[in-house]
Amino acid sequence: MSTPKAPFDRARRRQHRRRFAGGPDFLRRAIEERLLDRLDDIRTPLGRVLVLGAQDGGLADAIRGRPGVDAVVTADELAPADVLLDEELLPFREGAFSTVLSAMSLHWVNDLPGLLAQVRHCLAADGLLLAAFPGGETLHELRQALLAAELDVTGGAGLRLSPMIDVRDAGALLQRAGFALPVADVERLTVRYAEPLRLLMDLRAMGEAQALGEGARGPLHRPVLGRLDAILRERFADPDGKVRASFDIVTMTGWKPHASQPRPLRRGSGEVSLAKALGVPLEVLQGKAKKP
At a CB cut-off of 8 Å and minimum separation 6, what does 179 contact? Predict the structure, then answer.
């Protein structure tokens, strides 16, 4: 039985990040702000926090000094993180952290189910995982336009953009990894461009350029880029001529199981019947009521 091929070339991804460090980061900042908003709703102390995929440390800096934060440890493949590591292989002991945060990192992980299981391992009981990343129908406009442009110019097309995690799959992955109270939701961020191909430049400058594994296609040639520009303007421009680029931000929340957490009641253990609560005869709910 052959080993499944990794969807992403993580070495290429590191090269992109090294080359374009310090570029525009509007998407990551927007994701970090969403995580900080979610943390405002968490009433339990965050304790010892791991920021996984810390990048420039902006998220870590934002939570240092918050009430309930005892310590913050940053981890990333590249400096200046406190711990340099491969995000797919966590070296931390069981229960090392009370909270794990991740902003705009998990969408490049080849084995997300395995990583989530590792995160659960390094969380203390009742510990929190809060992560957000592009997923869903992110860049669906660009994806459609790229396919059409290559077909028009070359007669063939292949995968150009990363596969994305659907919000329903994100929730299922949390459950599979053993998290309690799993929640996944999605929020759309729309960016507009007067010059559509500026989007490609921004993706490259953010270190988000193509890093697909085996089967990745080469660079786009000028005729394809010209056709791409035209299709984006034809299909995805607003009345003012600016072209839309959608980013679906998927947020995952899960807790390491603990006895204090709420659990669903065992079937049949309720003390008040549904019929009594609704104020209707039991026969009506059972469909046994006699017809007049």
Answer: 116, 120, 129, 254, 255, 256, 257
Q: For residues 190 and 134, what is the distance between their CA atoms, to the nearest angstrom?
A: 12
Q: How far is CA 98 from CA 101, 125, 126, 171, 251, in A?
A: 10, 8, 8, 21, 19
The residue assigned the tokens 């396919």 is 147
How many Å apart are CA 163 and CA 137, to the nearest integer? Answer: 10
The 10s digit of each residue's pLDDT in 15-58 is 888 887 666 689 999 999 999 999 999 999 999 999 999 998 99
Rg for the chain, CA atoms, rounded: 23
Name the one residue in this structure whose structure tokens are 């995952």.
Answer: 252
pLDDT tens, 216-226? 567 889 999 99
In the chain the domains, ranked by start, together with CATH numbers, are 10-285 (3.40.50.150)
- Rounded CA-CA distance 182/138 in Å is 22
d(CA 64, CA 66): 6
Q: Using an 8 Å Cβ cutoff, are 123 and 100 in contact?
A: yes
Using the 8-state DSSP alphabet, how is residue 212 labeled? B
Rounded to the nearest 10 degrees, the angle between the axes of helix 140-154 and helix 222-236 is: 130
* Distance (Å) of CA 135 to CA 13, 193, 232, 250: 17, 21, 21, 6
What is the distance between the alpha carbons of residues 196 and 189, in angstroms, rounded to a whole number?
A: 17
